[in-house]
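Shift notes (night). Ran DNA polymerase IV while the centrifuge was going.
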Amino acid sequence: MERIILHLDMDYFFAQIEERENPQFKGKLVVVGADPKGGKGRGVVSTANYLARKYGIHSALPISKAYELCPNAIFLPVNMELYQKVSENIMEIVKKYSPKWETVSLDEAYLDVSFLKGYKGTKRGATSFPRKGEEGGGGVGVLAEKLKKEILEKEKLTCTVGIGPNKLIAKMAAQIAKPNGLLIIKPNQVEKFLEPLDIEDLPGIGPKTAEKLRIIRINKIKELKKLSKAKLKDMFGVVGETIYERVRGIDEEVVTSEEIIKSIGKEHTFEKDTRDPEIIFGKFEEIIEEIGRGLSSANFSFRTITVICRFSGFETHTKSKTEPRPLKMDGAKVKMRTKSSLPTLKNPTQDFEILKSESKKLLLKFLIENPKPIRLIGLRVRIC
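Came back to this:
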């Protein structure tokens, strides 16, 4: 059966909800995130509406920079309780359109609609690549339009839908079609769709990877496709193999309805950059305690610990502790150990003392290796 995957992506989700709840914000620049504090805020932007994005404001931008760019914008705090409730409502709608659905985040989901048995059908409802001169997606396009319409009618929010032969192409189609769009990429259109795109349009290629590629004058996916698998692996390790497949539109990952929590994490931004060990480790202890409670309440084991540290100037680094060949636990709980006999992470574990000890060791390395003041610390553990 021919695979047909639909990717739903809500448009500027948090900011759009705020516009819905506050009609007076319509037509104005809206930024959701940390308190800018008159340009002295320490956090980052969570999201912004499209009017604000025209001024260069985007997710993860320092809130102080956002204020500098648009001091007259409406700056709002994150209302996660509201956003989660709206997300739940939307996902209940999504589930009605396919027995195979997967929630990726609060504002994204995949649907496997292969039961439609192909892209053929009427010409109603969708734009198929290229946008002019070709037949629309037909049945799958009609389904997507119905989904978009139901979300708009019930939640008063717009979304974008991308459709393709796998998750990768569906997601990229949605990114191209934003906002409030619908784009269908048929299997025989994948190559033509991908080749003219910028290398950073390909999921998995961030600024650092792109920088290495641009040095050797590779800017488009068509140019990247010319590199051999061996060359990409030599440049980027195992990630190179993934890049080799993605530039060819290959993605075998299936849509699964299991809601799997892959990691738990938390970050904290200090009011002022600091090198004070008491302040840094005091806050880090709180983060460890919170993550430990989350692991315990869900009865999760973990295998990988990652510490995030952002220094002055937004220089961000991570350090991890993991075991390359994890052993299966068969549901058995790990016995608590004393600090004097703490092991390395050879096996998945639920031991809070291991979490505490290994996390602090990683953070201490940052303090020893980098003399710069610290702006942000964070901890993430991978669930297994």
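Residues 121-137, 324-344 have pLDDT under 50 and may be disordered. The two ends are 32 Å apart (CA to CA).
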